[in-house]
Specification:
The chain is an alpha+beta fold and 78 residues long. The chain has three helices and three strands, in the order αβααββ.
Amino acid sequence: MEKKAFIPFGYQLPTEKSRSSTMMSLDEFTKKCGGAHIKDAKKIRAVKNKTLYMKAELEYKVGRILRYFALHVPSRAA
């Protein structure tokens, strides 16, 4: 009979090993540049070469809670 190896389950979010200078939460971006009075050029500079992320929960159907993590990685080609 062959022994089965135990493989521990785990996962890692992209924000855990990234430098904080390259990451920005959507809440942080909204506080910094969320108003209509902020020019688009300033918004573009604020997110240039940054990865935007958001962690949240959503109640779905009867008492079911969905936890999700959204991530936007910028294009490095430009």
